[in-house]
Write a structure and sequence with these properties.
About 60% of the residues lie in helices and about 10% in strands. The chain is α+β, with helices and mostly antiparallel strands. It has a 6-stranded antiparallel beta sheet. The protein has a 3-stranded antiparallel beta sheet with strand order 8-7-9.
């Protein structure tokens, strides 16, 4: 059936692509522009190309090459593959952006048989690039709603399914926006040129990785029916819970109320839907309803005066809206299934005995391998989260070592890295490499004595360990006041790259 149609003079082709990607639509978009008819195929919101198309063959080659690089952890191959694929995506985005006149029509159709299409193209990156093409600073600022518009990071549901992923600069902005900030506040605190920061914010907003506080229209996109429905739903739920509070006030004193809301605000950016509502992943639908009622009553915007937030009601509104979004997702079986899949949440029935152990080990290995892939991309926070999950499921020395290496890349987390390596040593007490890495961390932490003892222990386990012998010699030179002082700088980074 025809799901979407109109004129390109009223709605750009890139805006239509953005809408179909956000809706996870499946079907064919026909563009009649400049006397030519073009067809774009979508499967679950991702752009594909017909297998016979010349560009499809090149796309298939680039995607296969990048996946091979990821599988082999070949850092150089990965970066080169990303660069070529990004060039291809940017080229396609510019071609679509040039379709400025004519008509468009989207027909919702089932995906063709296997082999009929090549893809998916990194559609999220295509939408991001298209959102900021050739825009000056003023236009970028206007798309974000102006300098006083309040932004917050959204949920990255794509995770590592997006081959191009997010850059370190984009990850940094999302971390800064774990709580609401105005555009001016982001510009004042973020690293980089003003124009580049604005461009990245617009690109992230185009795919809802950054959103306006409140459920106004997505920057740069038309207000569609879904957003109107969302606002209506939130208003209706807020009104109902407001009546509930009037009839049965919250049974919490002000101090405890402030503490609980404060904890939610402080952890807000890192909470998934289940954590926000205080639910187990296997909670039944009836419990989802109860949990939403509890959280909704706790964070209802009417509490602003009581909590000392009379001029900052937007913080409570944001919590209430996010709780509503979590409730809507988890109370819809299909939406919940997609969310669980995107978040790698496993709610399969509990297994017993050996079968459960095997399942846990497989899940741990998957988390470990994905953590390494994220680390190679430079997304250390996601890597640490996945590696911690692997350690929880199956405590292995190799998982703890990988976790330690990532933790050590942040000076503030080196003590945690040391604890992880000590755990690895408990599991594998004769591993010379673990003792060597412990020595490196002691050096990083300024404890030359313990570093020397760790290198000596590494050499006892493996007398041929050249790196440990080299560090021992440097420490001896430092003690004699000769040569350099044994600064280790980015030793862990070099080890990580070598591994």
């Amino acid at each position: 059936m025809t799901d979407l149609a109109g004129s390109l003079s009223e709605r750009s082709a890139l805006d239509v692509v953005q809408n179909l990607h956000a809706r996870r639509a499946t079907g064919v978009l026909e563009i009649d522009s400049g006397g030519q008819r073009r067809r774009l195929h979508f499967v679950d919101g991702e752009l594909h190309l017909p297998g016979a198309h010349p560009l499809a063959r090149r796309l298939a080659q680039e995607v296969d090459a990048l996946r091979s690089g990821l599988a082999s952890n070949g850092e150089t191959a990965i970066e080169e593959g990303r660069r070529r694929l990004l060039q291809l995506v940017e080229r396609m985005a510019r071609v679509i952006a040039d379709w400025r006149a004519g008509e468009f029509r989207f027909d919702e159709l089932p995906a063709p048989a296997e082999g009929g299409l090549v893809g998916p193209l990194p559609t999220r990156r295509l939408v991001m690039l298209g959102a900021a093409f050739d825009l000056e600073e003023e236009a970028l600022l206007a798309r974000l709603g102006g300098p006083g518009a309040r932004l917050v990071a959204g949920l990255d549901s794509a995770g590592d399914s997006d081959l191009l992923g997010l850059s370190p600069e984009e990850r940094y902005l999302l971390e800064r926006l774990s709580g609401p900030l105005t555009v001016d506040e982001v510009l004042a605190s973020a690293r980089g040129e003003r124009g580049e920061i604005l461009r990245r914010l617009v690109e992230l907003a185009a795919v809802s990785l950054v959103t306006l506080v409140g459920l106004g229209p997505t920057p740069g996109a038309a207000v569609d029916r879904r957003l109107a429905e969302d606002r209506t739903m939130i208003d209706r739920l807020a009104e109902r819970i407001g009546r509930s509070l009037a009839e049965r006030p919250l049974d919490l004193d002000e101090t405890e109320h402030r503490r609980r809301v404060g904890e939610l605000l402080a952890r807000f950016g890192g909470l998934d839907h289940y954590e926000l509502l205080g639910l187990r992943a296997d909670a039944p639908e009836a419990r989802v309803q109860e949990a939403f009622e509890e959280v909704g009553r706790l964070v209802h915007p009417s509490h602003a005066p009581r909590l000392g937030l009379a001029r900052r009601e937007s913080a409570l509104r944001l919590l209430f809206e996010r709780a509503t979004g979590a409730y809507r997702t988890l109370s819809d079986p299909e939406a919940r299934r997609r969310y669980n899949a995107a978040q790698l949440i496993d709610i399969a029935p509990a297994l017993g005995g050996e079968a459960r152990l095997v399942e846990q080990r497989e899940m741990a290995r998957s988390s470990y391998e994905r953590g390494l892939a994220f680390s190679l991309r430079g997304d250390i926070h996601s890597a640490i989260q996945l590696l911690e999950q692997a350690v929880t499921l199956d405590r292995r020395a190799e998982y703890l070592r990988a976790l330690a290496r990532n933790l050590a890349r942040n000076p503030a987390w080196r003590q945690r890295a040391l604890e992880a390596l000590r755990g690895a040593l408990e599991l594998d007490p004769h591993n010379a490499e673990v003792r060597y890495e412990i020595g490196l961390l002691h050096e990083e932490l300024g404890d030359a004595g313990r570093a020397r003892a760790s290198y000596a222990a590494a050499l006892r386990s493996d007398p041929a360990h050249a790196a440990a012998a080299g560090r021992m010699e440097k420490l001896r030179q430092a003690e004699r006041g000769a040569g350099d002082r044994g600064k280790v700088g980015s030793l862990f980074d070099r080890i990580f790259r070598r591994s």
